[in-house]
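Feature request disguised as a bug: please show the residue count (465) next to Histone deacetylase in the output. Example input:
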Amino acid sequence: MEATRRKSRVSYFYHDELGLAHYGPQHPMKPTRLRMTHNLVLNYGLYKRLDICTLTPATPHEMAKFHSDDYIDFLARVSPDMTEEIARSQHRYNVGEDCPVFEGLFEFCSLSAGGSLSAARRLLAGHTDIAINWSGGLHHAKKGEASGFCYINDIVLAILELLRVHRRVLYIDIDIHHGDGVEEAFFTTDRVMTCSFHKYGEYFPGSGDISDRGAGAGKHYAVNVPLRGGINDANYQAIFKPVVRAIMERYRPDAVVLQCGADSLSGDRLGCFNLSLDGHGAAVEYVKSFNVPLLLLGGGGYTIRNVARAWTHETAIAVGAQLPRDLPNNDFFANYGPTYKLDVPAAHMHDHNDAAYLDFVRTRVLEELRHIVPAAPSVTATETTPAERDPETGREQGLGDDRNDAARRRAGHIAAAAADGWTATRRADRDTCGSQPDGSDVAMIDHAAYERATEGGDPDARPAA
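Example output, currently without the count:
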């Protein structure tokens, strides 16, 4: 299905305030990386080939298309000096050490989510082929709580926006951490396929086993590619390309959302993969080659000089530019020493993904994708094939320890139900929309009634819209 290359129209969303947010002096998440990226994009002259767009901050109403009202209300009113309120809400909303309450938190969330929503709307309007929001990609946030440095799941919101027009959306995640928040949100629908390439085993968030494959109508539409530490460029591409190619050929999405978490780069402060700058960018280049409307988002990345290098490099890939390896003068030039190059080399480290393990994962995932009926969402999936054994541990994967439990499936009901509810009202001849669709023609589902109906019951039961 790979298409011939053509020049792409690329829209770029950024807001100066995003890079000024501060999680705390010891926190590994540093929004300054967004300012560093933007500064490199400008000083390389990439702005001349980009449509620089103004983002519209997301409103509480827009955030509540996925998140619970009480959680949005909490984020909107909480501040660092409300110590008693934070202490009372710590367990309910999972705020604390990993997800601190900092000054300007809600404004940061609103801008980040607004960038992804604005980018999705520009794609829907047909004004661009690729839309970029490096401040997005916060894939761990759940319906009613923060998780993994993420508060608002801009990805889910953007996908829901794309589903207003498109029949099928593919989500690909190349962050080193499993894209659990997005997978959970769409776990029971076939209108979104999620595919995550991540470190698995004794690693946050602990989900993303190869046997996690969706439930109900979404069975087989959650694809997990669990990898081990130290994976290099060649081995990553050896599994990334065949899996993505098979998904594109069978699922045939109308749009693709690619989360480009840069913590999968070699030398990341919290990571343990060994991808070079070129290896990470090759994944973006490959997804771009299918010429499907593409939303590029940021994500993790904690060695911030390398995050800026990667996202600048991938902005250049989006516009089809070759950048000089010598970095231009910029406001953060001193941070890029000692090389001052647009380069993140692979380190000398052991790749724990041996040939037998990679072959096992690749074969298992490709076999699972055979259950996907090409370009036919809402077709009932068949049963999965018997489990195979991990060649190293000998453990059967996919039988017995089934993680598709009721509680986890319920976590995704709101987004999945909304996605399927929008299917019924989509006009057959609607291929584009206005730049700011308001959703007035969309029949929404009573989410509260749905949760009450499924609480303690069959989590695969689906409500009427």
